[in-house]
């Protein structure tokens, strides 16, 4: 079996996309490759993440070993029929494939992205086509998304103001 392992050069890292390197291990041959994860670099984009998934597929990876993974990345790996296992502890690269693990089988087992809405709050006049940026999911129109974010912001502002007034009255 061939595994992809997000790592810092020595151990599995805490998050798949944020790992500086991705090691490719074979349970028969050991370390095959340990390439730079461009998706972890500052200024990376949805395209960088897609390229990472393509690199993993090009190595004929059967399974990815992670400590944590976002639900969108997990969904994309599962759609490519790549198994994903959560490892319960940090471990050295040469020991990760033998560490206790549990299979992740549905995207909701990944972590939700708190930055997703922020990253995709953009005008679709910026070179993107339609309601997508090529990252594999559907965006609201910029206008409707922008208005819903503003509405939530106003609601939070009113709540904060009410709390401050209440504290001031005590």
From TrEMBL:
Residues 8-97 form the Dinitrogenase iron-molybdenum cofactor biosynthesis domain. It comes from the Bacteria. Keywords: Nitrogen fixation. It comes from Vibrio agarilyticus. This is Dinitrogenase iron-molybdenum cofactor.
């Amino acid at each position: 079996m061939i595994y992809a392992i997000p790592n810092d050069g020595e151990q599995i890292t805490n998050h798949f996309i944020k790992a500086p390197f991705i090691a490719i291990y074979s349970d028969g041959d050991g370390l095959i490759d340990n390439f730079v994860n461009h998706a972890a670099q500052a200024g990376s984009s949805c395209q960088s993440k897609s390229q990472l998934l393509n690199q993993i597929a090009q190595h004929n990876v059967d399974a990815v070993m992670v400590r944590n993974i976002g639900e969108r990345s997990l969904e994309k790996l599962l759609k490519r029929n790549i198994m994903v296992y959560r490892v319960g502890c940090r471990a050295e690269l040469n020991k990760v494939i033998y560490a206790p693990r549990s299979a992740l089988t549905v995207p909701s087992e990944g972590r939700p992205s708190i930055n997703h809405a922020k990253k995709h709050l953009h005008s679709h006049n910026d070179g993107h086509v339609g309601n997508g940026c090529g990252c594999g999911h559907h965006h609201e129109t910029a206008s409707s998304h922008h208005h819903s974010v503003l509405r939530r912001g106003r609601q939070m502002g009113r709540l904060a103001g009410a709390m401050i007034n209440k504290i001031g009255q005590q």
